[in-house]
Amino acid sequence: MHRASGENYTRVKRLVESNHLHTICTSGNCPNIGECWNAGTATFMILGDICTRACKFCNTKTGKPLPPDPEEPKRLAESIRTLKLRHCVITSVDRDDLPDGGAAFWAEVINAVKKKNPGTTMETLIPDFDGKPENIKKIIDAGPDVISHNIETVRRLTPLVRTKAKYERSLDVLKYISRSGIRVKSGFMLGLGEKENEIFETIDDLFMSGCRILTIGQYLKPSPDHIDVVEYISPERFDEYRESALEKGFDFVESNPLVRSSFHAEKHVK
């Protein structure tokens, strides 16, 4: 793990703060923030930093969000240009308070970033938008290079770990994206009490949904109020899951205790 310091780290931090942007790197207490920010990359989080859901694994603030900031698309696009990013990752909080879950705003952000940064590839890590095709289509039509939606955990543990989100709904979201021809990515955590056969079932389900890029990481409890870690999985077992997924046909698999969904994301677009 790289320390959260260094010239590039400081540059990214200043840019994010001065442009009033949010990142999942800080909101989610990501263990890779030093490595990514020193490499000049960050996962930007749009639509504010307050989520309408309260998943038991996630460190993002929950509550009543502020209205979307109409200047955010422009500020984000200019920040990505200033950083001279070849690849950017954009995610958001869940916005169940908005009629379309924020899908139209998402499309506005994607279009603004593409217009200002025509040579930059883009991954969008999206919510489920309640599984409504008309909202997911707004993201697809905006045309990012990769669309990611995380399944987060195995089927049995989903009601325990996620609020409102459903395992089958997430699979349906991935299937809908896959049919568009855009590259599909997903990820899940280990250490929440899942059994080995459930891990392989989840890998199978994701592959059948059309997902071809997969991330698997260790769940780390972000605060005393979050769900407990049941087990710390060895790096060797993570390697086994990676090999199994690659043998099944996934194009790219990141599987390691410290892996998070946007880790080495620049590799996934190729």
Key attributes of the depicted protein:
about 270 residues, about 40% helix
Shape: globular
CATH-assigned homologous superfamily of the domain at 7-189:
Aldolase class I
What's the story with the biggest beta sheet?
8 strands, mixed
Give the CA-CA distance, first to last residue: 25 Å
Mean pLDDT: 88
The CATH class of the domain at 7-189: Alpha Beta
Percent strand equals 15-25%
Output the CATH topology of the domain at 7-189: TIM Barrel
Q: Topology as H/E string?
A: HEHHEEEHEHEHEHHEHEHEH
Give a verbal description of the structure.
The structure is a single chain. The chain is an alpha/beta fold. The chain has a domain at 7-189: Alpha-Beta Barrel (TIM Barrel), CATH 3.20.20.70. Helices cover 39% and strands 16% of the residues. The chain contains 11 helices and 10 strands. Strands 1-2-5-6-7-8-9-10 form an 8-stranded mixed beta sheet. Strands 3-4 form a two-stranded parallel sheet. Helix 9 links the parallel strand 8 (183-190) and strand 9 (213-218). Helix 5 (103-116) packs parallel to helix 6 (133-142) and helix 9 (196-208) runs parallel beside helix 10 (235-248).
